[in-house]
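Researcher: Let's try something more involved. This one mixes different molecule types, so please make sure each is placed in the same coordinate frame as the others.
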Amino acid sequence: MITVREIARLRAELANHRRAGRSIGLVPTMGALHDGHVSLIHRALEQTDVVVVSLFVNPAQFNDADDLSSYPRDQTRDAELVARLGVAYLFAPPVAEIYPPGYSTTVRVHGVSEGLEGAQRGIGHFDGVATVVTKLFNIVAPDRAYFGRKDAQQVAVIQRLVRDLDIPVAVEACPTVRDPDGLALSSRNRRLGPAGRARATALSRALASVARAAADGCDRTAALAAGRSELERAGIEAEYLEVVDPATMLPSELDGDERLAVVAAHVGPVRLIDNLPVRRFSPDPHNQVATPIGAPTDR
Ligand code: PAF
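Model: All components are placed in one shared frame. Result:
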């Protein structure tokens, strides 16, 4: 594996592969890699010839200086891990390579960026994500790029961005990886103490309660109430617990179509997010067999 820190060098390396007809996969990360990232890398290795993992803690997407400074960093361990997996390039640029002096462009995806995480962390969060991801797409020009569904709103923002700007990349949204107790893997989990770690499992239980209530036919209000009581039992107050349309990330009633239950909450000092697909049970009138008891059958 080759670690590359300059854009020009990475472009030159990848141009050789492209000339040889090899496809390129990109896994964008901010490091502190866990099994969720490993699953993205495995998918990229299966589907493309040359895999680039980018490792860049993007200051533009942090609204809080403390959150940026406390974001876990361990580049040596991350580099060893991706090398073992068979990744060809680790792209780990310094901040000045991505945002050189005089840098003054921002990419904003209106609408889908504005609710949930955008409302809590500020619209600047997804501006930062959209800007750095656009730059990574321009630098690497991948055939496919891999993102985790745990960051569902990020996936929706990037899908909109790619469509709106006609960027020729296939966005692969990959399933959330969970610990056996249901906690969605996140680089932030390593900052939870043992007690926080146990309380944090209430997030996935709350989402499961929403999904169960929906499947039992409850409407949005009742399903969300079921989720909220699960959080209350763990002493957790959600920043948001909502049912949204996965394409727009706007609040939505539950009906027969797939929706997402989404949650964000602080567990001690650590802010966590999670989501789960939900669907309300609604009997399909065309599949109802209304044969009165005792009525003659065809046989
Ligand atoms: O999901 C992340 O780790 C980041 O938001 C990303 C996509 C690497 C952009 O900085």
